[in-house]
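I hope you will forgive my troubling you with a question about protein structure. You will find the record immediately after this paragraph.
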Amino acid sequence: MTIALLGLQFWIEVLQAVLVFAGVGGENLSSSESTAVLVPVQLLGAALAAVCFLKGKTFAGLVGLFIPAVATVGALRLAKPDSRWAGRYEGGKLDRSRSRFAHASG
């Protein structure tokens, strides 16, 4: 959770800089305005990062804690065949996963 909060502070500062550069809010921006936007985005990113971890995509999950777009891509992509997520599927998706990740296992 600490990692997600550190990432949240970074994105709050980035959003504030972008909004001030665009002329929204004058020369400074209150923290409540940017926090109201970024807290839900960061929570969604943390949830998608958890999905990445369940799918066996550790790198996408770690980076996704800081950059929610990476977690979104990792959550939408096919799970690794030996992950907890892939254990829920039989047939088509599991076969596709095994064929896609066959080169990685040996």
Remarks:
- The mean pLDDT is 76.
- The chain has six helices and no strands.
- Residues 16 and 29 are 6 Å apart (CA to CA).
